[in-house]
UniProtKB/TrEMBL annotation:
<protein>
    <submittedName>
        <fullName>ABC transporter permease</fullName>
    </submittedName>
</protein>
<feature type="transmembrane region" description="Helical">
    <location>
        <begin position="92"/>
        <end position="114"/>
    </location>
</feature>
<keyword id="KW-0472">Membrane</keyword>
<feature type="transmembrane region" description="Helical">
    <location>
        <begin position="6"/>
        <end position="27"/>
    </location>
</feature>
<feature type="transmembrane region" description="Helical">
    <location>
        <begin position="255"/>
        <end position="273"/>
    </location>
</feature>
<feature type="transmembrane region" description="Helical">
    <location>
        <begin position="63"/>
        <end position="85"/>
    </location>
</feature>
<dbReference type="InterPro" id="IPR001851">
    <property type="entry name" value="ABC_transp_permease"/>
</dbReference>
<dbReference type="Pfam" id="PF02653">
    <property type="entry name" value="BPD_transp_2"/>
</dbReference>
<keyword id="KW-1003">Cell membrane</keyword>
<keyword id="KW-0812">Transmembrane</keyword>
<keyword id="KW-1133">Transmembrane helix</keyword>
<feature type="transmembrane region" description="Helical">
    <location>
        <begin position="288"/>
        <end position="306"/>
    </location>
</feature>
<feature type="transmembrane region" description="Helical">
    <location>
        <begin position="230"/>
        <end position="248"/>
    </location>
</feature>
<feature type="transmembrane region" description="Helical">
    <location>
        <begin position="158"/>
        <end position="175"/>
    </location>
</feature>
<feature type="transmembrane region" description="Helical">
    <location>
        <begin position="205"/>
        <end position="224"/>
    </location>
</feature>
């Protein structure tokens, strides 16, 4: 049966791994297209993951957890915007400060409230569970079609469908909406945008708010869908991988999503080959296998960084011409 092949597990795992990166990468796309380096994706993912898990456990309602994660991530994004846009601070330093602060704060709060070594209790029924599409059982016995309909198209949580629906939506917003035109103008030539009557600060704040909301879904997905609890530093570099996907995709939504799928694929392969005796190689140590996504990241950056063209005004505070 097709279901028994390892390839089928890799395909399904790729689909389930990708949303964490897609949400974060789309968030970074809005921020960086406006001219703000969003190095703080990692911290916002951790903050939203912890708050989502804590609120979902307390209320036993997953959607309350998602909403709480949105609120805290948006607040961090606006704080990041205040430092970068209003105060014209160093965007890299501000983002790294948020990452370090959230890495420590989430662990301390989790330990303070739950005394379980820096993790939250299992969410149990407060998780977001997979959606079974109509007709799944009727098609289950049909080779390939039953698997494809039940496990590739169906059988995922609502956040998975939201992640993939975001890709064409973000593409339309960036390239076919008035807001997207202003966003790109602020990231490429903020002085020209300002001369045309566009408020650069307002546009960048709006971009940061959108980025904070989208990034929150990445943290909520980790805690409420994938794991069912919060664990210290559970993002495991997802924010930085999302930034790498942005470089891979040349700051374009469709290509960035492909980069996210690529990293999701290598993560799925890593899971499949862990503990398996490979022909002619033997069993590869688990720690070496866990390096696979990060080695791919280095290769991607080394091969594509010179070819990628970032928004021209990225990382540069805007000072209005007199």
């Amino acid at each position: 049966m097709f279901e028994d092949l390892h390839l089928s597990s890799i395909v399904v795992s790729t689909i389930r791994n990708a949303p964490v990166l897609i949400f974060a990468a789309m968030a970074g796309l809005f921020a960086e297209r406006s001219g703000v380096v969003d190095i703080a994706l990692e911290g916002k993912i951790l903050a939203s993951a912890f708050v989502s898990a804590a609120v979902a456990f307390t209320t036993q309602n997953a959607w309350y957890g998602v909403a709480a994660g949105v609120a805290v991530s948006a607040a961090l994004a606006l704080l990041q915007g205040y430092v970068s846009i209003t105060q014209k601070g160093n965007q890299l330093v501000g983002g790294i400060a948020i990452n370090i602060a959230m890495s420590g704060l989430t662990f301390v709060l989790a330990q303070f409230f739950y005394q379980q070594g820096g993790r939250t209790p299992d969410l149990g029924q407060a998780r977001l569970f997979d959606i079974v599409l109509p007709g799944t059982q009727a098609l289950e016995g049909i080779p390939f079609i039953g698997w494809f309909y039940g496990h590739v198209i169906g059988g995922h949580s609502a956040l998975v469908y939201l992640a993939f629906a975001l890709i064409p939506l973000v593409h339309w917003v960036i390239y076919h909406s008035r807001f997207g035109l202003r966003l790109r103008a602020c990231g490429e030539n903020p002085h020209a945008a300002d001369a045309a009557g566009v408020s650069v600060a307002t546009t960048r704040y709006m971009a940061m708010l959108v980025a904070g909301i989208l990034c929150s879904f990445s943290g909520a997905y980790l805690a409420i869908v994938q794991s069912g609890f919060f664990l210290r530093d559970m993002s495991a570099g997802a924010g930085y991988l999302a930034l790498t996907a942005l470089v891979f995709g040349n700051w374009r939504p469709m290509y960035t999503a492909l980069g996210c799928m690529m990293f999701g694929f290598f993560s799925a392969v890593q899971i499949q080959i862990e503990g398996v005796d490979l022909p002619g190689i033997g069993r590869i140590p688990g720690s070496l296998i866990q390096m696979v996504p990060y080695v791919v990241t280095v290769i991607v950056l080394a091969g594509l960084m010179a070819k990628s063209v970032a928004p021209k005004a990225i990382g540069k505070p805007f000072v209005k011409s007199r």
